[in-house]
Design a protein that fits this description.
It is built from 3 helices and 6 strands; from the N terminus they run E-E-E-H-E-E-H-E-H. It has about 150 residues and is α+β, with helices and mostly antiparallel strands. The protein has one domain. The protein has a 3-stranded antiparallel sheet, with no helix packed on it. Strands 5-4-6 form a 3-stranded antiparallel sheet, with helices on one face. Helix 1 packs across helix 3 (about 120-130). The termini are far apart.
Length: about 150
């Protein structure tokens, strides 16, 4: 049985915005399963932040959305962050469900996007295979427009 959650570490970086009203532009550089090593320099500084032990939870109810993500040309992972008053960030949620990430985008939260690492693609695919249940087709009945005499 595949676990419904996995601990991740993320590396994000910032650069100065070129927009006259913008402060910083944040980029989700790398996502790794806890225990794996970052490819880049993971030292904490003002421009680079590492968050460890972020829990990615998946649910059987959302298997259809995970399937659509896996079928896309480039499966993605979404990190939802809360922007602080001092232009800093704090993590709210990490997900592989586009619908969930999109609902946060619509409310104005910062959503950082990165390609889904192969390790997580394989894990998500195994979870999907174990948990997805195809809905039986439902036959629609025509509505009666008249009363039988």
């Amino acid at each position: 049985m595949i676990s419904e959650n996995i601990d991740l570490s993320v590396l994000i970086s910032s650069s100065q915005s070129t927009h006259k009203w913008g402060n910083k532009v944040w980029i989700l550089e790398q996502v790794v399963v806890d225990g794996e090593q970052f490819l880049g320099d993971a030292s904490d500084s003002e421009d680079r932040i590492v968050w460890r032990n972020l829990k990615l939870q998946i649910h059987a109810l959302h298997c259809e959305s995970y399937y659509q993500n896996l079928l896309s040309d480039l499966p993605q992972i979404y990190l939802i962050c809360k922007q602080e008053e001092d232009n800093g960030l704090s993590p709210l949620l990490i997900t592989v469900d586009f619908d969930e990430a999109n609902s946060y985008m619509e409310t104005g939260e910062l959503v950082l996007i990165s390609p889904l690492p192969e390790t997580l693609c394989n894990w998500l695919e195994r979870f999907f295979i174990e948990n997805y249940e195809l809905e039986a087709p439902k036959k629609r009945r025509r509505k009666k427009w008249f009363k039988a005499k």
